[in-house]
Design goal:
heterodimer, A: 332 residues, mainly alpha, 15 helices, B: alpha/beta, 49% helix
Chain lengths: 332, 433
Amino acid sequence: MSALPVLNGGSKAAGGARSSRSRGRKTKEPSMIGRRERLEIAVLSGPAILMFLAFVIFPVIMAAYYGFFKWKGYGVPTDFVGLKNYVTILTDPEFHAVLGHNAIILVASLLLQGPIALLLALLLNKKMRGQSVIRVLIFIPYVISEVIAGTAWSLLLQTQGGVNRLLQDIGLGNLANDWISNPKIAMWTLMGILTWKYVGFAVIIFLAGMQGIPTELMEAARVDGASYWQIQRRITIPLLGPTIRMWAFLSIIGSLQLFDLVYIIWGQYVASTAGTSTMATYMVVNGRLAGNFGYGNAVAVVVFIISLIIALLYQRFVLRRDTEGALTGGTR
Amino acid sequence: MKQRSRILGATATLMVAALALGACAGGGDSANKADADGNVTMTLWHNSTTGDGKAFWEGAAAAYHEQNPKVTIKIQAIQNEEMDGKLQNAFNADDAPDIFFARGGAKLKDVVDAGQAMDLTDLITDETKKAINEGAFDALSVDGKVYGMPMSVLPGGIFYSADLFQQAGITEAPKTMEDLNAAIDKLKAAGIQPIALGAKDAWPAAHWYYFFALRECSEDVLAKSALEGDFTNECWLKAGKDLEEFAAAEPFNDGFLTTSAQQGAGSSAGLVANHKAAMELMGGWNVGVIGDLTPDKQPLADLRWFPFPAVDGGKGDPTAMMGGVDGFGCSKNAPKECADFLNFVVNADNQRKYADAFETIPANKDAQDVITSDALKDILPAYEAASSVSTWLDTLLGQNVGNALNVAVVDMLAGKSDAEGILKAVQSAADKG
């Protein structure tokens, strides 16, 4: 795999520039470099590291601490219960259910959004009339805030809402359904909304990746008599690999963390009834809304660990070949 | 040189950031304390985001400021479904409003146990004590001490549209479950959705369960179960089965699972307000809520009320009621003017205005003469004659078990669980709390 398209190619280029600059200076004033550059690094990255410690690492540690207590959220926790909260979480059928929902969302997001976005990106990568208008239209749902999108869809999808009305008006009245509260289809309603909302993001990333593929390759293939589909299948898609793998990573993380759309459309309580609750809504309902702050923190820790394991496994087995050069080729 | 100035710049940025962070952490509740001239500012959170109710609080604050020019009350209206969570966050952060909205039960008890509420027992004037029923104070008391000033009493029951009943040929308000089921059949035959239900908010659905429990369980069992979280008495299972059977006839509006209770024309109150559904089981505040959601924002003229019907073979007294008391408490850091203000807002004059604005039954008996709504006039005699008035079960049980119970009832109505499932959910929630 020689050509690395935009995402990783970009970071590699940046890394390369940095290393060549420092190497250049090293030859001129070798004794000054160590301390000065270290100070510069410390000062420039200090604020970011402080922020990261204060708003990411510290809360994680505190959550782990609170998770060992039965705590109503008032004052300092005193009622130490050890691992009881974790035992309750891992044996709670409701938590098993949300794990299943998250798994469905994760897999279905990849299987639905990936192919659709790839087809759209291939289409939009060709020169054609109204290209930029279509690009904007596809990207708009991603720009709209989750609250607005969620509210709009929940109004449209009500039994008396616009979608059912439309179906009736075009003679498909028997397809009308209780899209949101019917537990048999609520999950697919959610997947439809998620696809609508996030497919634009995938399309833009894929398009950007395609811009990074050297046109010479395609021209050469065309000269050799390859058809359009052969070129896409043998050249574009393989060379888009790193971009697709990076998008899949972002999609997986997003699926694991999904909260806002579910919470807005299904409200505080009925997501579990409709079968669309996620780990995040479970945490809020059983933690904050129930006033069980110790338990909620324990759930947060479990969600954190699950996400971390999946992210690390993905990095280790899927992303490694893409990031190898980019992450290790910097200053040394 | 260039490098040094860059480092200096970065250091300066870092310090500014650190200062800004420090400032965030520092600015706490200094606003509550009186300044050098003795001026006091108090904050008040209430749950009336629209119309006359909102105007009432602004008016009351202004009137109090006129009498006590040194006291200013800052008001924040918070959407009802957000109120509990926001209040809890504020108490957790030790940044609570001076005057906070309270419904009693375990929710208030949690606040009191955390030492966040002010004991008002000796701060309530004799005049106030005389005008308000003791039962209303009881609902806002913890361990015999009063922590809230009752504003209104809100007994629950079934609100209905007299016009739609007439349209369906129902001549008399249902007294028993058979009557109610017959009325539902007639409404359905007339093409009218019988009962509006805002199950998206869970508690309105759970009210049906609570009322069946009120009819199935004796008063003692009800009180004991709520206090100890013990639901082993078979009347709880029976109540769940009653509701399961009742719901099997599909009396609720289409899509009730995603219908909210009070927000907009599509909510359950909105359906009643717009004559899209005939009945709703709700608390006494519903007259005002429905009035806000009618097309012309006027009270619904044909709105009437009847008590929850008697259940055959139930051990509960058929006149027993379940309801709530809306009140206000003072948080622990509130200035002494807080209690004075609460005594002020429950005087007969202000309570008349309150009853008018909220279309509800005022806690002050002297002010009950202003009630004009037919529905509230239906409630008053039933309230007077009630053998007991119990607080809403979810309020009594507190957020943890209460919410779990509410969601479990929704699960059952959606066909995902059954009467036993409700009781299992209570146990599972108790493990988490």
